[in-house]
Every structure is written in C-alpha cells, then in structure tokens.
Amino acid sequence: xxxxxxxxxxxxxxxxxGCDDVYEPTSFVIDEKKQxxxxxxxxxxxxxxxxxxxxxxxxxxxxxxxxxxxxxxxxISGKQVKGREVEIASELSSHYKKVRDLPTNDESKIxxxxxxxAISRTAFNPHNNLPYIPGSSLKGSLRTAYLSxxxxxxxxxxxxxxxxxxxxxxxxxxxxxxPFRMVKVSDFMPVGDVTTKIVYAVNKKKxxxxxxxxxxxxxxxxxxxxxxxxxxxxxxxxxxxxxIGRPINIxxxxxxxxxxxxxxxxxxxxxxxxxxxxxxxxxxxxxxxGESAFLIRIGRHSGAEAVTIEGNRYIKIMQGxxxxxxxxxxxxxxxxxxxxxxxxxxxxx
Length: 349
Prior knowledge:
Blueprint: E1 5-11, E2 18-22, E3 28-31, E4 36-39, H1 42-48, H2 51-63, H3 66-77, E5 84-88, H4 90-100, H5 107-116, E6 119-122, H6 135-153, H7 163-171, E7 183-185, E8 189-191, E9 196-201, E10 218-223, E11 228-235, H8 250-275, E12 294-296, E13 313-317, E14 326-330, E15 346-348
Parallel strand pairs: 5-9, 6-10
Antiparallel strand pairs: 1-11, 1-15, 2-6, 3-4, 4-5, 7-11, 8-11, 9-10, 12-15, 13-14
C-alpha cells in the first residue's frame, strides 16, 4: 500500500462549500455596532430570558406564520446575546434592518424578502462550528484535472458525449472498475485560527459590457483567505483481480493539477483585472508551484472552466418550443459563458 500524502490546503481567496444549512432566524442576531453576526444557542437564549419575555417569545414562535419570523427578528434584536461572532459585509447590517422592520400585513412581500435574506453556511463541524473542507469536494476537483490531462494525452477533444460516457472512456472503467476508487481523500480540518466572513455573491460579466449581468445575489458564509487546512490523500495500488485497466499514475495525477489550474488562474487574472476585483496573491509560493505546491480550485461558483474536461466543454442552449437544443463549445476565454463572480483558488503543498 502506498504511503498517504500529508497535504496542507492554503486558502488564497474566499471559498464557500455548500452544506444545505443556513443561519436560522431563531439563532442569530446582527450587531450593527460590531458589524458582526452573532450565532447563539437558542436554548441558552431562552434560558436567559425573564419569565415575562419567555412567554412573549413563545407566543411569537407559536404563531407559525411567515409574519411571525419578522416578529422573531424584532424580538431578538432588542436583546443582549452571546455567541460565536462572524464578520459580515457592511451591506448585511442594513439588509437585516430592512427585513426586521418589514410591515407584518403583507405575507407575500415578507416571503420574498426572507428568501432573499437566506444566509447559507459553509461546510462546518457541528461539534465546534469550525469550517472544514470535505474530502469529496477536493477529490472532485482533482478528478476534473486528471481527466483533462488524460483527454489531452489521448488527443480527445470536441466530443459531445455524455459526461459519464466520456469519463468511462478516459478511465477505461466505470463504477467498480473506476480507478478513482483507489484515490482516498480525507476531510481537511483547520489548522490554527480559521475565520469566516458573510458576503454577497453577485453576478459579474467577465468582459466589459453595457449590460449588467443578470441573476439574483446570494448571501454566503465564506472561509477567509489565509486559512490553512490539513488532511491526507492516499492513492492505493489496485489488486490484480480488481479489473482496473488504467490505474492512477501518481506523478501524472499530481502534475495534472498544475497543468489544469495554472491555465485556469492565468485566464482568471484577466477577468479579475477586467471587472476590478481583488488580485489573488500567490507570491508566497514562488519557487514552489509545480514542485511542492499545486494550485486547485474548489467550492461554489468555481466556474464551468474548473469543473469540466478541457477541450470538451459544451453548454446546452434551449431553443423555442418544439425545437431541439443547440450546443456552444465552452472555451477558456474571458468571454466564457459562466459570468459568476471569480473566486476560490487554493494551493496545496
């Protein structure tokens, strides 16, 4: 059995990994002076209330209506609470106040505003509330890079196959004989102080246009740059009888991340300059990239370029009623067809 690779993941731009969890109205308050979201234990909060306040809060919760959620916001915002503090974008404080002060006689309006105010949490350990990087997220990014390397080596491009069919051909196997069964990636746990920040994710076109990008914003908790996570990657040798026709080549596996994500980063630099976003600084890894450090991108809004096989990207475009869909080839250009905000590039060493 191969010796596991001990890997450190350095976050060099904000990252959000969805976990289907949100900050519940009954468990947080926005401190406008501190510009922090305070996440507290609802049971501890109830215990801290006077008997009279407890009855008031219970009565609001028992209503079970959309408008009662606004009542909960109003009640909690007037109380002193203690809990885990999370940094927030400045706009969130005024947004919270707007939701809290909604009139309670228009449930349709309240429902719309509450949907827009959903704050998605990044993946976290429920025992200590610290963020972590799921191994499945990292493995998916590594797989994309490796498949792209194989496609390039085999001269496969401009294919419109289903993704599963193309992967089966590249890996010479599927499910039981998929060589990635032998790649084991642990969850990555935080090293030292790791903090998060709640931000707005907005659509931005990668090329200057007189028309703004369309689509709703999202409110996401992100892991801040500078955070470090540690975990293991183990590439095992398959048994002779495993039926795996194309085992993972470790050297090719590692170098594929360099080839793939370096190209993504170079394209991204142009997009960052175009839209005036913050520059991604990787100077601390000068002399290490491609040797002991390798770029990778994970998390939500990674962009189509980072989650599809290079040279074989197509976007399905629905036509009018009764007409078959057409396909546009996705290419690594600044005018790519995924205008989401550019972010989430990491290095691992």
